[in-house]
Amino acid sequence: MAAIAQEIEATMKNLMLKPGIVGYAFFSPDAIPIKHSWPEEKEHVVVQYAALVSDLMGRTKQNMKRLLPAPDCDVQSIRIRTKEGTELIITHADEYVMLVI
Fold first, then answer.
1. pLDDT (tens digit, 9 = 90+) per residue, 42-73?
2. Whose CA is closest to 42, among 29, 33, 31?
């Protein structure tokens, strides 16, 4: 288990070296931040992102089930781009949600 945690930590550090990456956050489906790359004084930003992304993910899943009633149809990721060039990638894996900006 410790080896997996170290591998994830190394992967996230490499991700932060990529140009254009602002930060990342992992949080539970209840919008509780677990791990993030923002400094402590920006903790409120992570909590806000977690709440908004969790709500977006829930509503998207609900609407996708209405549109595509197939039992195996589930939302795996959401990609949002703004006109200013900011991009949010939201991925749902097991019981956690990952956000990369």
1. 889 999 999 999 999 889 888 888 888 777 77
2. 33
